[in-house]
Amino acid sequence: MPFTLEGKTALVTGAGRGIGRAIATRLAGAGAAVIVNDLDDEAVLQTERDLRTHGHRIDHLTGDVTRPAFPQQFVDAALQAFGSVDIIVNNAGYTWDNVIQKTTDEQFQAMLDIHLVTPFRLLRAASEYIRETAKKEIAAGQRVMRKVVNITSIAGTDGNAGQSGYSSGKAGVIGLTKTLAKEWGRYNVNVNAVGFGLIDTRLVQATMGEGANIGMRGRQIRVGVPPDMLEGLISRCPLGRLGSPDEAAGAVLFFCSPLSDYVTGEILICGGGLHF
Ligand SMILES: NC(=O)c1ccc[n+]([C@@H]2O[C@H](COP(=O)([O-])OP(=O)(O)OC[C@H]3O[C@@H](n4cnc5c(N)ncnc54)[C@H](O)[C@@H]3O)[C@@H](O)[C@H]2O)c1
What we know:
The protein is an alpha/beta fold. It is about 45% helix and about 20% strand. It is built from 8 helices and 9 strands. It has helices at about 20-30, 40-55, 70-80, 105-140, 155-160, 165-185, 225-235, 245-255; strands at about 10, 35-40, 60, 85-90, 145-155, 190-195, 210-215, 220-225, 265-270. It has a 7-stranded parallel β-sheet, with helices on both faces. A two-stranded antiparallel ribbon has the order 7-8. β4, α4 and β5 form a beta-alpha-beta unit. It starts with 8 loop residues before the first strand and ends in a 6-residue tail after the last strand. Bound molecules: nicotinamide-adenine-dinucleotide. Nicotinamide-adenine-dinucleotide binds near residues 13, 19, 20 and 43.
C-alpha cells in the first residue's frame, strides 16, 4: 500500500451490503477508523462484526439517512466515537424505476431525497467541523487533506430510460460535487464523485420471480434489472462483465487516499467502459 489512512475517520452511508460494505472494508484495511450506517440494522451489524473481527476500529449508526435529523446525528456519532471527520462517502441509495407517465411525485421526490438532498445535508452537517478544524490547521502551517466522495451513476451522466428520478438525483449530486469542490478547496477538502456502471449487487441482480425488495418507510420497493436487459447491457460493456463491489470500492479508495490530493471536482466512471 503506497499510503496509509491511519489516524483518519471515515463515514460511509449504506454500508450494510454491496458497494458500501466493500468501501468500508477497503477504508478500514487502509487503516481508517470507520463509522458505518445502514437502514437495515442486521446488515450494518454484520459489516461491523466482520471488520471488528479483523481488528479494525469500527462503529455504526443504524438509521434512514433521508430523515432530516439523521446527517447531524451521524457526524456527531463519528466525532464522539473517533474524534474527527476526515472522509465522507455518500453511498446509500436505491432505485425506484418507471417510465415518466407511471412515476408518481412521491417516487420522483424519494429519488431526489436519497441521492441528492441527503448528501447535501450530510456535507452541511459536517461543514462546521471541517471549516473550523481546517482554519486551525492552516493557521498552524499544516496542510491536512480531507475527502468527500459522492456516489453517482452512468444513469446520472448519460440518462437512462425508466429512471427519470434516479438519473435526476444522480445528475444533481454531480452539481453538488463540483460546487463543494469550489467552496471547500480553501479548507483542503477534495470533493469528487465516482459513477458506477453495472456492479454486481442487489441493485442489479436479475429480477427473477419476486426479485429483491427494499423496505422503505413502510413500502416494499422492488429493485433489480430484468434478465434480458441485463444480458444486453453486459454484451454492450467493453469488459463484458459486471464489476465486483470490491472493484467499485477501489475507485472510491483512490479518491479517499493521498494519491488524489490534487484532484477535485471530478467524476470518475467505474463501469467497465459501459455507457448508456
Ligand atoms: N450496483 C450498481 O450497479 C450501481 C450502479 C450505479 C450506482 N450505484 C450506486 O451505488 C450505491 C450503492 O448501491 P449498491 O449497488 O451497493 O446497492 P445495495 O442495495 O447492495 O446497497 C445499498 C445499501 O444502502 C442502504 N440504504 C438504502 N437507502 C438507505 C437509507 N435511506 N438510509 C440508510 N441506508 C440506506 C441499503 O439498505 C443497502 O444496504 C447507491 O448509491 C447506488 O445508487 C450502484
